[in-house]
């Protein structure tokens, strides 16, 4: 009986050059229905604690979710996971685009990659024909050329290519992975893991359909049609399509919590030059991901002071702001160029821009000088120097070699007060969201398994007003409407529920922009498609949350086994200091209150507040008691 | 006065403009303007007049003002 997947996993050992197909069954899939859950299961079982993230022994898991490739909007995402070379923790990143759905059409749920090839290779998958191919002539080339060469070599223009650029080849610790040149597994350095394995790319082509393994395609198609029609009538979906995330720059600045100059300030004087109205002038086209009617992807083109190719898409909010206000740069052409270079070299734009802002602050404090920067005047606001440093990082040249290690390691090497300017948690740089303006995001930065990411939870601002569309969309999740800056037991409760919901999305392959709280897709519709895809009629909203919680517990167990504990669940000192200016001037997070809230988060999660290890009881409740044996709890 | 409607707030207004110029003969409450434009007040999370954050219910606006309204925004 079809239950939503082929159940097939590809196992590739690059050292041996071996390729095998493993099969799991429905009972297994009920517990680990893809994405983050499947990745966590594999890493816990197959990766020895303490393994060097850049060694052949690291295990790279690429996993679709239960809904990846379903014929409706926002079902595009797949997970890449391994021990992170940036954080040493469980590392993971999701991407949309077309590659995940294509893998499903080729009949595979996931790929597990171990070992290290003797020379650069790429993996070619065409339905059940899988082979390792020589990539020596592709090494060192940029993604656009590599994609074209692979398509020519395989004589197939429609092959989907997942690949790394030179940032990945050079094992920049926050190297990303790209598919179709415009979609990225951005965070935690999965590109460096590919580079360390001499794996340049994975080309996929499938002739199957999502329908092949769906239990009942009819309700899925009906909801898909309804979603397709809904875009124009739904304010958030319409906004994502028309303005998209770059629209956040102006709003955050007005609110006073636009991360500016390495999180020192909350407003940026040059904001008019980088906000949506300026972005629109370099906008050249709009694109989408597989089957998605929202069409929120933008493309920019510049042919002026900088030349920016349209082939690599356009910057999202994180990137506009990261290379903008965060580095004190108000030149949108330079920002677009920095984005294009990151995409060419496959670098995570958040960690790249944050690490450069860190270096700028070190430069301004005299901790590094012209000698270290190779003559670059690396002050906040120097757009030209910023763009140059992106290239140096990818090539690991000059100061770039140090910054390619990430801000935490660079601060350790620089010494003195440099650690105060590395705005990171667990070694990963914070995203462009100030937790002093929305503390739930700060809880995520702190307890999230791989540090400073903004996608562990739903942002407080979206669920602050009980009458708003975004809050109403989350009603089936039974959370409370709370002020964004409020800490305490109620916030801890909201956090744990919303983290489970977000984690569920990462398990099943849903894009963050589709379901609640954006609520283009209602919680009830998500439940209906899960039931239809699997035939699991008894599944409830609580079960969806448990799927998310189980995945988070697997990742947490991985961290505990790798030596992480409460001391690593922290925030940069700067977040406990006041914002310097603007409407939020003086706002900071109360340290004691924050720790009390974390205590409550651990209590609700059933985690030990010191070791952060999940309790046996909770793991049993989640049907993964075997993890308690691994942890010895 | 100049009005900037951030993110999806412009969806509620015919033709969906992000920016509008509106003539005000006399000062009015921001809440009145919001009602005239049929903007759902529950979707306004940030309101600023000339760069200063204000409450929609209490703020007065006049013809020289620059008003910004933004809905709840999250991450992405
Ligand atoms: S909402 Fe945007 S990012 Fe998400 S799947 Fe659709 S087009 Fe891709």
CATH homologous superfamily placement of chain B:
Beta-grasp domain
Count of the domains of chain B: 1
Cα-to-Cα separation, first versus last residue of chain A: 37 Å
Using CB atoms under 8 Å apart, which protein chain pair has the greatest interface? A-B, 39 and 25 residues
Query: Could you say what the CATH architecture of chain B is?
Result: Roll
Mean pLDDT of chain A: 97
Q: Within the largest sheet of chain B, what's the order of strands?
A: 2-1-7-4-5
Question: How many E-type strands of chain A?
Answer: 18
Strand content of chain A: 5-15%
Structural class of chain A: alpha+beta
Structure commentary:
The complex is a heterodimer of chains A (633) and B (76). Chain A has 3 domains: 8-212, Aldehyde Ferredoxin Oxidoreductase,  A, domain 1, CATH 3.60.9.10; 255-421, Aldehyde Ferredoxin Oxidoreductase Protein, subunit A, domain 2 (Orthogonal Bundle), CATH 1.10.569.10; 439-631, Aldehyde Ferredoxin Oxidoreductase Protein, subunit A, domain 3 (Orthogonal Bundle). Helix content of chain A is 39%, strand content 13%. Chain A has 26 helices and 18 strands. In chain A, a hairpin with a 3-residue loop joins strand 15 and strand 16 (307-308). Chain B has 76 residues and is mainly beta. Chain B has one domain: Beta-grasp domain (Ubiquitin-like (UB roll), Roll). Helices cover 9% and strands 29% of the residues of chain B. Chain B has one helix at residues 30-36, and strands spanning 2-5, 19-21, 28-29, 46-49, 52-53, 60-61, 66-70. In chain B, the strands form 2 sheets. Chain B has a 5-stranded mixed beta sheet, with no helix packed on it. The longest helix of chain B is centred in the middle third of the chain and has 7 residues, at 30-36. Chain B is globular. In chain B, 38% of the residues are buried. The complex binds iron/sulfur cluster.
């Amino acid at each position: 009986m079809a239950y939503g997947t082929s159940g097939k996993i590809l196992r590739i050992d690059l050292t041996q050059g071996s390729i095998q197909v493993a099969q799991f069954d429905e009972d297994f899939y009920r517990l680990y229905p893809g994405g983050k859950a499947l990745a966590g299961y594999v890493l816990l079982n197959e990766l020895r604690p303490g393994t060097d993230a850049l060694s052949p022994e690291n295990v790279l898991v690429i996993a679709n979710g239960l809904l990846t490739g379903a014929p409706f909007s926002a079902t595009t995402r797949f997970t890449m996971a391994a021990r992170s070379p940036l954080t040493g923790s469980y590392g993971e990143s999701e991407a949309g685009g077309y590659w995940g759905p294509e893998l499903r059409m080729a009949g595979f749920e996931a790929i597990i990659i171990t070992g290290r090839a003797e020379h650069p290779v790429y993996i070619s998958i065409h339905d059940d024909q899988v082979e390792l191919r020589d990539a020596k002539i592709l090494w060192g080339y940029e993604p656009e050329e590599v994609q074209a060469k692979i398509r020519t070599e395989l004589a197939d223009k429609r092959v989907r290519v997942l690949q790394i650029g030179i940032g990945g080849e050079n094992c920049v610790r926050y190297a990303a992975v790209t598919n179709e040149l415009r979609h990225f597994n951005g965070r935690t350095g999965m590109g460096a893991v590919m580079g360390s394995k001499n794996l340049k790319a994975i080309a996929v082509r499938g002739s199957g359909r999502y329908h092949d393994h769906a239990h009942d395609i009819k309700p899925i198609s009906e909801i898909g049609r309804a979603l397709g029609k809904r875009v124009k009538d739904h304010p958030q979906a319409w906004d994502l399509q028309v303005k998209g995330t770059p629209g956040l720059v102006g709003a955050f600045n007005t609110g006073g919590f636009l991360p500016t100059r390495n999180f020192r300030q909350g407003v940026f004087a040059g904001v008019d030059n980088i906000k949506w109205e300026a972005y629109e002038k370099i906008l050249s086209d709009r694109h989408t991901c597989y089957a998605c009617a929202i069409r929120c992807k933008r493309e920019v083109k510049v042919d002026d002071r900088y030349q920016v190719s349209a082939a690599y898409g356009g910057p999202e909010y994180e990137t506009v702001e990261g290379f903008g206000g965060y580095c004190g740069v108000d030149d949108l052409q330079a920002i677009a160029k920095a984005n294009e270079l990151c995409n060419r070299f496959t670098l995570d734009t958040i960690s790249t821009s944050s690490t450069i802002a860190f270096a700028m602050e070190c430069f301004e404090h005299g901790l590094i000088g012209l000698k270290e920067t190779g003559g670059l005047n690396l002050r906040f606001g120097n757009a030209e120097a910023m763009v140059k440093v992106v290239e140096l990082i990818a090539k690991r040249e000059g100061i770039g070699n140090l910054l390619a290690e990430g801000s935490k390691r660079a601060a350790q090497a620089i010494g003195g007060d440099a650690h105060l300017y590395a705005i990171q948690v667990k070694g990963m740089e914070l995203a462009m969201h100030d937790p002093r303006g929305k503390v739930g995001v700060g809880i995520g930065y702190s307890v999230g398994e791989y540090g400073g990411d903004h996608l562990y939870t739903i942002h407080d601002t979206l669920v602050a007003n009980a009458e708003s569309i975004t809050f109403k969309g989350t009603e089936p999740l039974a959370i409370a409407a709370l002020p964004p800056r409020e800490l305490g037991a109620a916030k801890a409760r909201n956090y744990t529920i919303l983290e489970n919901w977000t984690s569920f999305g990462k398990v099943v392959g849903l894009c963050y922009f589709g379901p609640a709280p954006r609520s283009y897709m209602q919680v009830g519709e998500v439940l209906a498609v899960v039931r239809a895809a699997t035939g699991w009629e008894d599944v409830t909203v609580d079960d969806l949350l448990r799927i998310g919680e189980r995945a988070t517990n697997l990742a947490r167990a991985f961290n505990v086994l790798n030596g992480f504990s409460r001391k690593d669940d922290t925030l940069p000192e700067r977040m406990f200091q006041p914002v310097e200016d603007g409407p939020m001037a003086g706002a900071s997070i109360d340290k004691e209150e924050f720790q009390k809230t974390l205590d409550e988060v651990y209590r609700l999660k059933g985690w030990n507040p010191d070791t952060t290890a999940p309790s046996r009881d909770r793991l049993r409740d989640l049907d993964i008691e075997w993890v308690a044996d691994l942890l010895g709890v | 006065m100049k009005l900037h409607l951030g993110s999806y707030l412009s969806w509620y207004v015919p033709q969906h403009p992000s920016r509008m110029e509106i003539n005000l003969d006399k000062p009015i409450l921001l809440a009145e303007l919001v009602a005239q434009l049929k903007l759902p007040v529950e979707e306004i999370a940030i309101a600023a007049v000339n760069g200063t954050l204000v409450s929609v219910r209490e703020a007065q606006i006049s013809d020289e003002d620059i008003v910004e309204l933004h809905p709840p925004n999250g991450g992405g």
